[in-house]
């Protein structure tokens, strides 16, 4: 699944995990791993890539659990409209 990069680029994010969505005026605070996931999404990375990078950057084991945790977190970001999925392509 990919996400609308124009929407992600609109988010104001600082190094401490403070996120401001100018479209809604809502603010959020992310921990270090949440911030890493959101930044990876902004770069166009997807679930497995993000989980692998988290495992390396944060010295974590359990890639299957990491991938599931990333998927769950991205689902939460979608619920709060911080990330917006883009269509996967033409349907037949």
Q: What's the gist of this structure?
A:
The protein is built from four helices and three strands, in the order H-E-E-E-H-H-H. By secondary structure, the chain is mainly alpha-helical.
List the helices and strands and how they pair.
Elements: H1 5-10, E1 12-13, E2 18-20, E3 27-29, H2 32-42, H3 47-57, H4 63-79
Helix pairs in contact: 3-4
Explain this structure.
The protein is mainly alpha-helical and 92 residues long. It has one domain. Helices cover 49% and strands 9% of the residues. It is built from 4 helices and 3 strands. The protein has a 3-stranded antiparallel beta sheet with strand order 1-2-3, with no helix packed on it. A hairpin with a 6-residue loop joins β2 and β3. α3 packs across α4. The chain is globular, with a radius of gyration of 13 Å. The relative contact order is 0.20. The model has no long low-confidence stretch (mean pLDDT 87).
Core attributes:
mainly alpha; three-stranded antiparallel β-sheet; 4 helices
Topology, number of strands: 3
Low-confidence stretches: none
Number of helices: 4
The largest pleated sheet is described as: 3 strands, antiparallel
Rg (C-alpha, Å): 13 Å
**General form:** globular
Strand residues, percent: 5-15%
């Amino acid at each position: 699944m990919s996400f609308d990069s124009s929407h992600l680029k609109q988010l104001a994010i600082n190094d401490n995990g403070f996120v401001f969505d100018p479209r809604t005026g809502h603010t959020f605070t992310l921990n270090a791993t949440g911030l890493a996931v959101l930044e990876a999404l902004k770069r166009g990375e997807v679930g497995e890539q993000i989980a692998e990078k988290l495992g390396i950057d944060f010295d974590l084991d359990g890639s299957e659990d990491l991938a599931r945790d990333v998927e769950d977190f991205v689902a939460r970001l979608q619920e709060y409209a911080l990330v917006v999925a883009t269509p996967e392509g033409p349907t037949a």
